[in-house]
Every structure is written in C-alpha cells, then in structure tokens.
Amino acid sequence: MMKYTMKFSTLLLLTLLASKMATSPALADQPSHRQPVANRAPLAETPLVRLPIGSVRPQGWLLRQLELQREGLTGSAEQLYDALEANSGWLGGSGEGWEKSPYYTKGLIALAYTLDDKQLQERSEKWVSWVLSSQRDDGFFGPDSNNDWWPRMVVLYYLRDYYEATGDTRVVPFLTRYFRHQLTNLPNRPLTDWGRARAGDNIEIVLWTYNLTGEAWLLQLADLLAKQAYPWTEIFTDNQFYGRFEEFHPHHIVNVSQALKFSPVVWQLSHHAADRNAYAKGLVHLNRQYGRIDGQISGTEMLSGLSSTDGVELCADVERIVSTAVAARILGDATLGDEIEQVAYNSLPAHVTKDLTGITYYQLQNQVQCMNTPHGFEQDYHNGIMPGPYSGFPCCCYNWHMGWPKLVESLWAATSQGGLATVAYGPSTVEAEVAGGVSVRIVEATEYPFRDTIQLTVEPEQPVKFPLMVRIPAWCSQPKVSVNGEQLAVAVPGQYLTIDREWKANDTVKLELPMPIRTSRWVNNSIGIQRGPLTYGLEFDEQWHRVADHQGPFDEFTVTPGSDWNYALEIDADQPEQSLSVDLAEVGEVPWALESAPVVLKAHARKLSGWGLQQAKGQVVLGRGNHGWHPLKSETATLAANQPHKLRVEVDGPQFRVYVDDAEQPVLAGSDNEFGRGSIGLRAYRSTARFEDIRVNGEPVASGSDAWTTYDAAWKFDSGTIAVDEHLTAKAVLNQSNVGRKFTLEATVTVSGGGDAGLLFRVGEAADGLDNYQGYYVGITAPQSHADAAEPPTSPVTSSEPLEEVRLVPFGSTKLRVVYFPVLED
To answer: Which residues does UniProt assign to the signal peptide (predicted)?
Structure first.
C-alpha cells in the first residue's frame, strides 16, 4: 500500500498544481453531455471509452426484448412492488429507503432512454427530481431513515445516465457537492458492509465527474474510497474469497460480480500492474472453483461450487454484464466481449419468462423441476427457481431491470483514437462523433447470436477517416472479415481487428463467424455443448401450473416435466459435429420462447433408468454468528422430518463435538476460539420447531417464558416444551445464563422438513435477525421431498434402453433444462 500511496501522491500533486493554474477547473474543457468522456491526466488512457446512454439503439429481436420488458415487469413495477409506492423513502415518504427504489430507477432510466420512451422518461423524473431536491447544505442526500453510503452509490450511477441523456444542469453540481461531503466525512464514517464491497461503483462515478470538471480533489476522494473498500485486487489475485475475512461480503456472488470492475477502475488511478491484472487472475480462480457452462459463476447467494444443480442469482447476471463491460473498455481485452455475450445470451434469458412477466431468483444448469421446495442452498428460498414476480429474496425483482438496456449500451464503445469499436454483438444502431467531430451512424444488421453473419453499414455525414475495431470471438477459429466485398487479412480469434480507412456512405463491413459445435467437461466427466456464444440443453415438454394469481399477467408458476429428461448422449466429444445435426428456423421477435427456438441441435441418446432426483438427506451444521453467518463444519446425516432427534454438543475450550441421537461417535467436530463465554439459546430458520428436555451439564434448563428473551417470532412455552411455528427467522436466548470453557448442551429437537433448528451457545449481543448475535450455532436440517436432479452419473455410462433422437435448444429458451449430460460408452 505504501508504494501505491507514494505513486498516487505524486500524480495528485502534479494534478493539483495544474488545477491551480486553471481559472475555473469545474468548467475546464467540460464536454457536451452527449460526448464520450475520456480520461484526463493523470488517469491512464483507456483503449475504449463509454458511449453516453442512448447512443446505441436496439433493433430486431433485441428491440422487441426491451419492448417486452416495458410491457412486462418494468412497466408495471410501481403497481407490483411495495417499495415503489408513493410513500417510498426515495420520494420523501416513510416507506423503504434503502436500495430497492434506487435499483429500480437505475434500470428504469436505462430502459427509458435506450428506447427513447417518453412515458418511461416522465416516470423516472419523479425519482430523479426528489433525489436532486433532497440534497442538504452539507451535500448529503436521500431519506433520513438511513445514512448508508451504499444505496447512494446506486443513485450516483443512474444520475450519470440521466445527465448523459438530458444534460440536466443540476446533476454535476449535485454530484460535486456530495463528493465534497464524502471526502470530508469518510475518514470518520468509513465504508462498511455493502458499501465497502461495492465501492467500485462510487469510484467510477467520481472519476467520471473528474473527467468532466477537472477538479483534482476528486482523485483524492477516489483514492480514499479505494483504500476503504475491500482489497479486491488482493482477493482476486490471491483467491481470498473465502478464509481471509470474517464477514460474508467477499464471497457473496453479487458483490463479487460488482467487484470485477473494481480493480480495472482503480488501475486508471494507480497505474499498478496488479490492479490491471486482477480481473483476469481472479476469473481463473472463480472459473476453476465455481465456473458454469453459461459463462456465469455459481452463487446461491454465496459462491457455491461446481455441482450441476448449483445456481446463480439474477442480480449477479446484470451486475456481471455491467462490470465486464466496464473492464472491457478499460483493459481493451476482446475476450471480455465473449463473457458479456455468454451471460447475456444464456443466463439472463434463462432467468426471465419469454414475455418478461416473471423472473427466477436462481437458475440451475440441470433444472428438471421448478417447485416450491428446499434446494439445500446456503441461502435457500423455496420459490427461488419458480417463475413469478416475487421469486426468491426481494432484491432481484428491483435490480434486474437494467440487464437488457445495459447490454445494449455495452455493444459499442468509442476508441481513444477517435473511432468506434464493437464490444459485443447484437442487432443495433450506433450514432456517435468520430475523428474529432464528424457524426457517423452504423447499422448492425444481424440475427446474432442465433446466426453467424453480421453486417455493419457505415453512414457518415461526410467522408471521414477513423478506425473501426471489430471484435473476433475467441471461439471462432475461422473468421472472415470483408469491406465492400473485399476480404481483409486473417483476423485473429480473441482479438480486435482494426480497420483504419476513409469511410463513405453505405460502406459495409461483413463479419462471418462460423459457429462450430464445441464440448466441455463438467461434474462427473459430464459433457456440455456450445455453439457460438450459446449453450444448449435438452428440450423438455414444460408443464406450467399457476399457483399464485397476481394482478394482470404477473402470476407465479411451478413447472414440471411432461417428458423424460434422464438421457445420456451418444457423442464424439472431440468431433461433436459428427454426432449432432443443426436445424435452423426463423429468428422471430421472441427467440427466447421455447416453442420458437431459432436453432435446434439433434442428438442420439439413451435413457438412464438409474438417474433421477436427489436422495433427500438431512444435515448437521456447526457455525459461528458474528452479526453475520460463518460456517465451520457440516455433515449429512439420516434425519426424519417432524420426528424428535437428540442433539448434543460437547464443548471444551475451542473444541466442539456434536452428536445426534444415539451415535457413539461425533457426527462432526470442529474448533474455533472466537467467543469464550455467553448464554445459551434456540434458533430456527424456515421451520416449525420444538425443543424438549434442554439441559446444560445434565441439569434441566428453565422452560418458562419469563426465563427467555425471544426475537423475531412468537415462541410458545408449555410444560417443558419450547416451540415456534415456521418463520423466516426465530431466536430465543436464556436470561442470566453463562456457559464458559467446558460444558455439554443438549436437547431433543423436532424440525419440519426443509428448515433447520438447533442450539445456540456462548451467545451475546443478540438482536432481531437470524444471525444478528455473537456466538455459535449447531443445528439440524431434516429433508423434505426434493425436486432437484441428482448429479449426472460418472461418464462413460451404459444403457440397454433404445437409442432415441433428442432435441437440444438454447439454454435461455427454457425454464427446465439439462445441460450437463452423461456420455455413453463407445
């Protein structure tokens, strides 16, 4: 850190001296709100520069996708979601005043100005106007209900978009006053929790404002924010997502997705190679440990592994698209465009319904049913993979709205050499100034990612020379690029091809990007199939069942299979095109609808009678609470729902041994020395639970209500039994108890299927909230009927079933899918 500080201080001193020589740094060379904002010295020059929102417009199927969003959940969000009602804290009311409304407004503004939709623009005005009018004399703004830095970071992001679209002269002074407030107050009120994890968003807008105004003190603020944030460069470089930090933030999937841009953003300021290289190094670690075939990283909500039924959160999709686009512009790495496309064209459509009236909080690679049931995730939501407007935890239903419009924004970028670049591909038009001020429009006519041809028609207002950088996907081994029918030199996969020439009206660039079928290996040597940027999975006969009838078309559904899904493929993994055929159909307005899939792969397969749903198992878990959850150990166990189980923990200093029922050997053992003494208690999560015969060192514990302090839920105390009905969170702590170094705590615990319940010990600082305490928890989870597939059996496999032809469709077209297949023995 000393090296960083000394180098930055030198740069800052030079900039401060330069600013003193300027008569009005706040107005120095400030570009028009419609111009790309390139970096000023001493920030590093970046190869690509972000185009203002609205510079890129969607066409074809992509336009229809945004229109469906307007007609669907985004257009009706203020009628569906309580945080967006008239009493919102972000409208001056007493309602929710944290992140939900800013999330929604961020997506609303992006959609409104990408579509140039006047009605949506007018709707966004009330949110923006209240924010701008809420600023205090000291520069702080927002609801009085909280002073958290984090939700205001979301507001900064959407105010940048709003300014670019409208040129509203209130915005830049507003940001400048707020940033002055931050510089003054952050030393004594530093970033914490979510703000510490997501500070890259704040820094990005600080640097954008500096590039507009030339105010050198903004670089000092950016440096301060970087130092108060989690050390993401070290976390990504040294694989420190787990283990280094007590809290969960460094391994929370949405935090990680947002933090992917942190180090590249900071590199502009620090000029350190470690910051520049952290994105690539971190992604190697993440893909190795948590990677998925759809280009995403598993996280439910914590980074969660390589299983075929590990999920990913919808919020992670939209944040990943934004973060990777930021990194792509700063680093100039063409392969990051591949990453954007993989997430946007696989995981994002898999998370939403074809008409964009429903979302799923999680989506799984092998997802054979969407049922209201536990899934065994660390953060489990029983409706978390069910399509509907309220799936899972209520953050994604506010945050997902920016996904498609931010993809459109990210398709194109300006270049530092006065040109334009294709960052990712999709049907669109871009309008910008090149070569110092000549307007140009480029029409991108394509049915990508379903087809392999892209035609760019250049329409400058006058003949003009500028570089056009076209990205060659890394997966394309034999690309062809031609200008006005004349083929250019060989293009290199995974790099940009720069075409620097004088462009005239109706000049055309044609890209032919053949899409060979590729295979990859996953859990248990299973095989995944990709063609171009798309991943393919088994086509199901999806049976949709309405289980909640909300207003309009915004209902909730379970989805069950009306056809078999347990197939092993007959495929040559090294030459998959010898085993699979490709059928192309029309690319319609809604290509993500299962019934109108534009590409179908046909394969031969046999059913595997032994491959079915997961066997339901119970679990014993030991962990530490410190106003957040830190798992220590867990083991599977044979446990029955709604049946009493004896749970005993023997503690000797830092050593714990946990026994269940009549086991003579501990089910699990662990060690932790964080907390030395405290009370005992009971805890339940999403479970009806009953606790009987609670003892410490063999002595019964008082079971009357006056002996206990309860939190969150209504507890029942009756004749030696303490019970609680199913609730999201429930705790009860024994008053005036203090277990210390050595003791035995035991009870008979009955837990309903799918939830967990157990014992707290060495508890202190308890408050409402499941993990809002200091101390330890040992609990049991009893199984409920499981709706998720078992892992594919280890390949190669054999089957005596007849050979059948099966159809594989794009990952994003389905709510039920198998994408990790067993492979038949040769």
So the answer is: 1-28
Three-state DSSP at 388 gives: strand
User: Rounded mean pLDDT of the chain?
Assistant: 93
- 449 alpha-carbon distance from chain centroid: 22
Q: What is the pLDDT of residue 11?
A: 47
411-512 domain in CATH 2.60.40? Answer: yes
Strand partners, 682: 732, 759
- 711/724 Cα distance (integer angstroms): 11
CA dist 792 and 822 (Å) reads 6
- Per residue in 526-542, pLDDT (tens digit) is 999 999 999 999 999 99
Residue 480, SS3 per DSSP? strand
Rounded to 5°, angle at Cα 785 from 783 and 791: 90
Closest to 812 measured CA to CA, from 317, 71, 371: 317
User: In terms of Cα–Cα distance, which of 284, 253, 294 is closest to 820?
Assistant: 294
Cα gap 17→8, rounded to integer Å:
14
Q: Would you say residue 640 has pLDDT above 90? A: no
User: Which DSSP helix (H) or strand (E) runs through 653?
Assistant: none
The rounded Cα 434 to chain-centroid distance in angstroms is 34
Among 69, 89, 87, 79, CA closest to 145: 89
In this predicted structure, the answer to whether residue 699 has a pLDDT above a threshold of 60 is: yes
Structure tokens at 176: 């400048």
C-alpha 163/C-alpha 150 separation (Å) is 21
Pick the CATH number of 618-781 from 2.60.120, 3.40.50, 3.30.920, 2.40.160: 2.60.120
* Extended strands (E) in 70-139: none
Each domain of the chain, given as residue ranges in start order, spans: 1-30+72-229, 411-512, 520-613+798-813, 618-781
pLDDT, one tens digit per residue, over 432-463 is 999 989 999 999 999 999 999 999 999 999 99
Proportion of the chain above pLDDT 70, given as a percent: 96
Residue 628, pLDDT score:
83
CB-based contacts of 760: which residues, under 8 Å, 6+ apart?
Answer: 625, 679, 680, 681, 682, 683, 731, 733, 773, 775, 776, 777
